Amino acid sequence: QPYTDIVPQIVIPGCYIPMRPNARETGRIRRYCSIVGCVLLAHMFLSTALAMLFQLLYSSLQTVMDKSGGNILPDNYDILLDDYFWASSSSVAMNILVFMLCNAGLAIFGCKWSKIPIPTLFRTKGLTPGRILIYICTAIALQSLCGYLAEFVMNFLEMAGITAYDPQLITEADTKTMVLTCIYSCIVAPITEELLFRGFVLKNLSRVSQRFGIIMSAVLFGLWHENIAQFVLAFFVGIFMGYLTVKHDSLVPAILCHAAVNTAAEFFEVADVYGLDILTSILSYGYFALTCVGVVLLIRMFIRERLPYTTPPQSERGLRIAVTSCPLVLVMLGHLFMMIAYIMMETNNAI
User: Fold this and answer.
1) Is 77 helix (H, G, I), strand (E, B) or coil?
2) What is d(CA 229, CA 148) in angstroms, rounded to the nearest whole number?
3) Are 86 and 170 in contact (CB under 8 A)?
4) If we measure between CA atoms, which residue out of 98, 225, 94 comes closest to residue 166?
5) What is the crossing angle of helices 228-248 and 210-224, to 10°?
6) Residues 207 and 314: beta-carbon distance below 8 Å
7) Residue of 120, 128, 169, 344 with fewest CB within 10 Å of its CB?
8) Do 335 and 226 form a contact (C-beta atoms < 8 A)?
9) d(CA 182, CA 274)
């Protein structure tokens, strides 16, 4: 986003920008950080509130059906606590609706608030089918490498007596649940999450420095998942997708890579659930081949390309000001607290 939103006179020839920002410039930079924090805080509370509301409605519907002689769930199931509810297709459908509304709705609201024209997020520059294939292979390689890294971190924590929370699909889920989960993971999540994080969040945090925006949006994206395994993947893949977004000035490459990574994971999950050993073997060979190609492309990218350079004045206007934004700090601490809480719960259950 143009820095004229923060320092309008920067377009005047000879305009001097000091190394350290003055109070007015600092306040305007902090404002955009706070907009990001406020929207993500609203996401935390709104998604929780909507999920609770849908659970309550579902519970009320179950009560009515029970009294009328019909049954949606087996007898003696507490739908607020039992795993059956969380594995049911109704629950997955509700989660899709909640996150679709929160991700897309709040991203659009945040863009309007910070005056980011939404159509400009999809105007792609220099993207070809060949580049898309290269980016997808690279993203899959990152997914594979991050999987090993996450496993190493979780094993290290296990050795220290800490059991990290690792979200997994319930393997007894029915076909409707699997279909809905695949729809969310492969279509809804890539579009809405990229609109929120690489669209709204990245654009606002990149007003001063694109490098800072890429890294900070990846940190927020990782913390947003509230578990170590997905944090590792979301952070490193988030940096890669943020780089692509800045390079092509578009969400399209990030959406395609996000969809490819999630689709690869879902293919293995579905094959495992239905015991399709032959398909799993075929997928494993194909995934390994793409990973090998992607690693070569990733090394090539490290050698030939870099994240956007940050000048000394930009470095004085990044993290130093961002940490003074109360909403932004609160949303980071909130997700970090939830991550730690999940770890403590898993550790206590394992004892």
Assistant:
1) coil
2) 10
3) yes
4) 225
5) 150
6) no
7) 128
8) yes
9) 14
Coil, strand or helix: which one is 309? Answer: coil
pTM (global) more than 0.85 = yes
State the Cα–Cα distance between residues 95 and 52, nearest whole angstrom.
11
Task: Look up tokens 């997905």; give the residue.
Answer: 230
Residue type, 231: F
Distance, in Å, from the CA atom of 92 to the CA atom of 86, rounded to the nearest integer, reads: 7
What is the rounded distance in angstroms from the CA atom of residue 32 to the CA atom of residue 5? 10
3-state SS assignment for residue 15: coil
How far apart are the C-alpha atoms of 78 and 177, rounded to whole Å? 19
What b-and-e string marks burial along 214-229, b requiring 16 or more CB atoms within 10 Å of the CB? Answer: bbbbbbbbbbbbbbbb
Rounded CA Rg of the chain: 22
